[in-house]
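Worked Example 4.2. Consider the chain below.
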Amino acid sequence: MEKFPNDVRIVFSHNPLPFHNRAMAAAQASQAAHLQGKFWEYHDKLFANQQKLEDADLEGYAKEVGLDVDKWKTDKESDKVKQVIQKTMAAAENVNARGTPNFFINGRNLRGAVPYENFEDLVTEELDKAKKLVAGGTAAADVYKKTIEKGKLFEPLESTVHQFTHEGLPYKGAAKGDIVLYEFSDFQ
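Applying the procedure from the previous section yields the following structure tokens:
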């Protein structure tokens, strides 16, 4: 975000793994925080406290980040929140993102906890492609769509094109950036 503030959008997609027994509760809690515009503050609390994800802990974090706790409690158990999480889990399954973290940078997969340089290299490559598209007449607002329209997302390459949406999901960074980094992750 510091190096590419006008070019990169980071989208957080929930993928609570079933063997992480508190991951689903944390996903629901963070998505409920998103409904109050505090996802990233809550996200940071969860990552700082990965061993403390019991219900009382989650509620304490809600208070710490300034959420309306009664609304948050209702929202985290709502069908709306659960459907968003189920949708992102299905998207993760569709692109073989079985582990966390799992990243897609303009459709190019980067798996696991990798060094920053790996991200920077991919973002730089994708920005170079974006600049060429714009120079060739593609509107800047259409670069991401054009980039992934014929994309292959995982090895071995397959013919299916998977599309991601950030509708209902927390994101930060350039709302219309050329680079979209989707992170499939959980908090445990």
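The domain at 8-185 is CATH 3.40.30 (Glutaredoxin). Residues 9 and 173 are 5 Å apart (CA to CA). Compare this with Example 4.1 before moving on.
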